[in-house]
Design a protein that fits this description.
Mean pLDDT: 93
Shape: globular
Structural class: alpha+beta
Number of helices: 5
Oligomer: single chain
Length: about 180
């Protein structure tokens, strides 16, 4: 499948979409710190803990030409239906049977941006989670990302009860 976005051709056949391997944990940590400022990025330890305990909730896009991660999405399933900051740091909130997924990060390396890869990662993740019986994806984002997430199918529910990184966040939901 070739898609033209912003004048750039993107073939998603270049990528393998799958759950993360534990051996890719350090790549995920590095990508997180490239994609998010220090006050918002997941700590190395929290990322490693997430991968160790909930690797099935990570969907990565592996560039087949390099064998490296180009981007990923990760979350934690839960029965809760409101996002709270503790999801970023408290793995005990993870419930493998939960019907909702709190999205904790959508990361795409700069050299792969503006070509539809984030959209494709979200699309594949939503299919994967729907097949597991999930009902809703929930995330928080800054004002400047609301339109992007709306284009991906998320609905803006207004300001979230989140002050992660000292920021004000919108809560966005995606019904599966």
């Amino acid at each position: 499948i070739d898609i033209i976005i912003g004048g750039k051709k993107m073939s998603f056949e270049q990528f393998e979409f799958r759950t993360i391997l534990k051996s890719e944990a350090e790549q995920a940590v590095t990508i997180e710190h490239i994609c998010f400022p220090p006050n918002e990025a997941c700590s190395r330890q929290a990322m490693l803990t997430r991968i160790e305990n909930a690797s099935e909730q990570f969907l990565v896009a592996v560039d087949k030409t390099t064998g490296k991660l180009a981007g990923f999405i990760n979350g934690l399933s839960t029965y809760e239906d409101k996002f709270r900051d503790e999801f970023f740091t408290d793995i005990s909130l993870y419930d493998p049977k939960g019907e909702n997924v709190m999205i904790l990060g959508l990361d795409v390396l700069p050299e792969y941006r503006n070509r539809g890869l984030a959209r494709e990662i979200v699309r594949n993740f939503s299919i994967m989670e729907k097949e597991k019986g999930r009902k809703t994806l929930i995330l928080t984002c800054l004002d400047e990302k609301v339109k992007m997430y709306e284009k991906l199918g998320f609905s803006d529910k207004g300001m979230a009860d989140s002050t992660w990184g000292g920021e004000e966040w919108h809560e966005m939901t995606y019904s599966l």
